[in-house]
Amino acid sequence: MSIEIKVPVLPESVADATVATWHVKPGDKVSRDQNLVDIETDKVVLEVVAPEDGVITEIHCPEGETVLAEQVIALVEAGAAAQSAPTAKAEEQAKSNSGESAKGESVDIKVPVLPESVADATIATWHVQPGEAVSRDQNLVDIETDKVVLEVVAPADGSLSEILHNEGDTVTAEQVIAKFAAGAGAAAPAPAAADESDSDDDVLSPSVRRLLAEKDIDPAKIKGSGKNGRITKEDVEKHLKGASAAPAPAAAASTETAPVAMADRTEKRVPMTRLRKTIANRLLEAKNSTAMLTTFNEVNMKPIMDLRKKYQEVFEKKHGIRLGFMSFYVKAVTEALKRYPEVNASIDGDDICYHNYFDVSIAVSTPRGLVTPVLKDCDQLGLAGIEKGIKSLALKGRDGKLTMDELTGGNFTITNGGVFGSLMSTPIINPPQSAILGMHKIQDRPMAVDGKVEILPMMYLALSYDHRIIDGKESVGFLVTVKEMLEDPTRLLLDV
Predict the structure, then answer these.
(1) For the segment 407-419, what is each residue's pLDDT rounded down to a tens digit?
(2) 409: exposed, middle or buried (C-beta count within 10 Å: 0-12, 13-18, 19+)?
(3) E strands within 331-406?
(4) 440 is catalytic
(5) Residue 265 has pLDDT above 90, yes or no
(6) Residue tagged active-site, from 157, 405, 471, 488
(7) Does the reported pTM lie above 0.85?
(8) What percent of the chain has pLDDT over 90?
(9) Distance CA 187, CA 182 (A)
(10) How many beta carbons lie within 10 A of that of residue 382, not counting itself?
């Protein structure tokens, strides 16, 4: 039976998405709940998993292609066909397991060269364990600095023979953190361990791992119904329903069972990552060291939505990228910064530093926390240049490949909570900047237009600013300028 693989339903205010990474190719066997592809929007990455065990027969949309909600992007042949479809990968693995290379060369796994001004780093996550078979360029470990995550990959096919530094250890540049045995013979896994490892995190799909972590559930307590005993999302949900139903009979039990009920009240203590600690310190610094106020307004998004609908196809054909909302936001902010230089300034001691360039930070949510990469010289970029710049930064943020140069600087920040459904918020300033603009969910609301009620797609704007440098007049004027630019986007092109 052939099953269609579709783009998930996209968040509010997100018109389209991009196929970021295919983790499989036609002919590959897949297991139920295995992640097939990452679908990327302006700020979030959505995983599309296999609905059944099967074989990928067709991929309709390659990486980089723009797609819409519920668009068919691939086909999976489910059922018995999955068991009979041979793959070159399986044959290669069998050949590897035959033990053609009995001896493996020992290689040191080292911490990469760290960015400028970074003295040390922390072992964040080991993705493999000693004795586990890995392939060339497979990610072995994540090394985390204050804002950048560095991946250390396998230098060849083989296996990890020894881990010298565990997760949480502080390490320095080019320090040896593990020993690696190269060669096919070193990569051969022990067959007897296969069934025992089915409950390990390594064989769980990302969606199942995330659900287990959120609910703090030990996978060993769940009986898997998937292939080879693999745990599926349905197994976890069934376990949760059983756990929630369990307290009912316990209430009628004797008082002797009371200590057992109390034993379920457990806690989990996890140390902050370096990135999370940096974010926490910067947010606290912003609250304590600035006189922060927030002013609000709202904008009618219909003109921009109509403009995108009219020119989307020709824009994409010419520039090779979809026309999103964020490029309009950046353009409107850049024009407003030109008119209100106080918002584009920062306090340095007793001085006010006015910037004659326009570098805008774009808040991006990543698996490890919020980062604000910088899109530089926005006044010199057109809508296409802005869209390409934002996409590049978002991809690097998702993969943990942002450089220190891309994360430092910036005169003003834009954050779009609307992709998560936020209707209104008070964003926190990103020091040493003096202001931040929050965009929100686009929602149809009844509005009075020329004495009549019309249903319009409205969005709230929130400008948080440092009152030490920006007065109310400038903050309101700035926000009104952004509103006017978005409600009449032709002004962005005419510079009026």
Answers:
(1) 888 999 999 888 8
(2) middle
(3) 345-348, 351-354, 360-362, 364-366, 369-371, 374-375
(4) no
(5) no
(6) 471
(7) no
(8) 34
(9) 8
(10) 12
Sequence-distant (≥ 6) Cβ neighbours of residue 245 within 8 angstroms: none
Write out the DSSP string of 396-452: HHHHT---HHHHS--SEEEEEGGGGT-S---PPP-TT-SEEEEE---EEEEEEETTE
Contacts of 484 (CB under 8 A, 6+ apart): 491
Write out pLDDT tens, residues 221-239.
787 766 556 677 677 777 8
Q: What whole-number distance in Å separates Cα of residue 161 and Cα of residue 150?
A: 21
Identity at 399, one-letter amino acid code: D
Contacts of 389 (CB under 8 A, 6+ apart): 375, 381
Give yes or no for a contact between 114 and 145, defined as CB atoms under 8 angstroms apart.
Answer: yes
218, 467, 488, 495: the active-site residue: 467
127 included as an active-site residue: no
Nearest alpha-carbon partner for 236 in 200, 269, 207, 262 = 207
In whole angstroms, give the CA distance from residue 314 to residue 322.
Answer: 10
Distance CA 337, CA 330 (A): 10
Q: Residue 184 to residues 86, 129, 315: CA-CA distances in angstroms?
A: 21, 17, 49
Burial (0-12, 13-18, 19+ Cβ within 10 Å), 127: middle
pLDDT at 352: 93
